[in-house]
Specification:
2 copies of one chain form a homodimer. Chain A is α/β, with parallel strands linked by helices and 272 residues long. Chain A is built from 10 helices and 8 strands. Chain A is 43% helix and 15% strand. Chain A is globular, with a radius of gyration of 17 Å.
Chain lengths: 272, 272
C-alpha cells in the first residue's frame, strides 16, 4: 500500500480538497494532480494541504500537446508547458506527464519531430526547476489527435534523439501499451536506461463503449496488469502505482464508494 | 477504376442482389462478399450472378476467430473455417480474409499460437480448393476479443512460423495499420515475400465515436491513404483496392447516394 496513488481525474466529480480527505482514508499515499483540479487555488496552498494529508504529490498531469500546424501555435504549446513546469515546481511535484499531441492529417513522423523539438525547448526550464518529464506513449487509437507517440519504442527513440537527458523518461500506462508484443523488452530497456518515470494502471473492458471515457477498474477487463507491474518492478521501478481511470460510468457513481472499490481492487491486485 | 472493389458490408442495408446491380453502375469491378450476405442463397447462383454483373469476386469475408478457451471450441472454429473454404471455392473467390480472433483475458502470445495452429489445420483444405488465406492485422484497439494479430510484423511472424506457404499472406487495411511506424518497411517485406494478398481502404474520423462502426469514407479522416496505397503498389501489388467501411452513420443514409459518394471519393483518391 506504500506505493498506492490515485489521479484526481479518477474521481473527477470530487474537488481536490475532497480528494485530499478521501484518498488517505483508503490507504492512499500518493496523489497525481490534474491541472484542472488546481483552478482557483494557490499552488503552494495545495502543496501544503497535500503534505498535511500525508500525500506525496507524485506528478502533475499533463503537459505536452506540442505538435501544431503553425509555429505560433507550437510556441503557445511550449509556453503552456513552461507554465506547467512552474506549477509542478510550486506543487512540489517531481514529474510532469506528457501527452505528446498529434494533428489530424499531419504525418506522424512530422508530429514526432515537433514533439522532440517541443521537449527540447522546455527541457532547460524543467531541469532548472528540478522537474522531470515523462513521455506517455498513448494507445494507437489516439494517434489522430492526441499522441503521435504510440509505443514505448517510439518514446525511447525520442529520449535518444534528445541525447538521453536524465530528466526525460517514460510513463508506462497499461491501458496504452498492454497489447504491444515488445512490451517487456521495452520496459527492461527503460529500466536499464533510467527512464521508468511513472506507472499507471486501469483496465480494458470488453466491449469498450467509448474511446476516451470507458476505462475499467482493475479487474474489470482483460489487461495482465499484475504481470506488467511485475515487469516494471523487475526493471527497477520503485515509484507509485497510479490509478488513472477515465469512466463516464464510474464517475456517475458515488465517488466515496468508488474509492472503496479502487482500494479493494488495488489490494487484490497486489496482495500476493 | 479497373481495381475498384467494394465489400458487401459497406452497403449493409442492401441485399447482395442489389449490390450486384448497383456496384457496376459506379464503375466497380470487384466485390468482396461477407458471409452473412449469402444467407439463403445457393453459392453457385451468387457466383453466376456476380459473373453476369461483370464483377470479380475478390474475396470472402471472413474466416478466422481461431482462439478459444477449450479445444472443442477451437475445433468448432476450424470447422467453420473449413466451411468458409468450401464457400469461397463455390463462389470462385480466390481468397478468404482472416480476422484471427482473441479471447479476453487469455494472453496474446497464447492466442497467436492458437491462430497459427488453426491456420495450419485448415491450410491443406485451402490449398486443395485453390483458395488463399489472408491474415488481416487488426488495430490494437481490437486486441481484447477480435484479433491478437495487431501489426504487419506479427502477421509476417505467423507466415514464417507456418513455413511461408504461398497460400498464406496478409490483408493490409489502412484503418488498422496506418499508425504503425514500421508500415512501409513491412509492406515492402510483404511484397518481397509474395504476401500482399489484399488491400482495404476507408478513413479514420476525428473524433471516432464508436470502436467498431464509425469508420469514415476516404477523405473524411486523417489516414494517408494514397501514400499507403502507393507503397503497396510499389511493393508489387496489382489487385483490387477494396472499400470496406463499417459506419452506423453511413448505413443510415440512402445507399445509392452513398455509393455515388464512394465512387467520387475513390476517383478523387486515384485520379492523379
Amino acid at each position: 500500500m506504500k506505493r498506492f496513488c490515485i489521479h484526481t481525474i479518477t474521481t473527477k466529480p470530487l474537488i481536490i480538497e475532497e480528494c485530499l480527505i478521501e484518498f488517505p482514508k483508503r490507504g492512499v499515499t500518493g496523489i497525481t494532480i490534474w491541472r484542472q483540479a488546481l483552478e482557483g487555488r494557490e499552488w503552494t496552498d495545495v502543496r501544503r494541504q497535500a503534505a498535511d494529508a500525508g500525500l506525496d504529490v507524485v506528478s502533475l498531469c499533463r503537459g505536452g500537446f506540442f505538435p501544431a500546424k503553425t509555429a505560433a501555435d507550437r510556441q503557445t504549446a511550449i509556453d503552456d508547458n513552461l507554465k506547467a513546469i512552474e506549477q509542478a515546481h510550486a506543487l512540489g511535484a517531481p514529474l510532469i506527464v506528457l501527452v505528446c499531441g498529434a494533428v489530424p492529417g499531419q504525418s506522424l513522423v512530422e508530429s514526432r519531430k515537433q514533439i522532440t523539438d517541443g521537449i527540447a525547448a522546455v527541457l532547460p526550464a524543467a531541469e532548472q526547476a528540478g522537474v522531470k518529464l515523462a513521455i506517455e506513449p498513448l494507445h494507437p487509437m489516439y494517434a489522430d489527435d492526441r499522441s503521435a507517440v504510440n509505443t514505448m519504442r517510439q518514446a525511447h527513440e525520442i529520449c535518444d534523439a534528445l541525447g538521453s537527458p536524465t530528466s526525460v523518461g517514460i510513463a508506462v500506462d497499461v491501458y496504452h501499451v498492454w497489447w504491444d508484443p515488445e512490451l517487456k523488452q521495452q520496459i527492461d530497456l527503460a529500466g536499464k536506461t533510467g527512464r521508468l518515470h511513472a506507472f499507471h494502471i486501469c483496465d480494458w473492458r470488453t466491449p469498450t463503449m467509448d474511446l476516451l471515457n470507458d476505462r475499467g477498474l482493475m479487474g474489470e477487463g482483460c489487461i495482465n496488469i499484475r504481470e506488467i507491474s511485475d515487469w516494471v518492478d523487475a526493471a527497477g521501478f520503485t515509484g507509485h502505482r497510479e490509478v488513472e481511470i477515465f469512466s463516464d460510468r464510474l464517475w456517475a457513481t458515488d465517488q466515496r464508494r468508488f474509492l472503496d472499490q479502487i482500494a479493494s481492487s488495488y489490494t487484490s491486485l497486489y496482495q500476493s
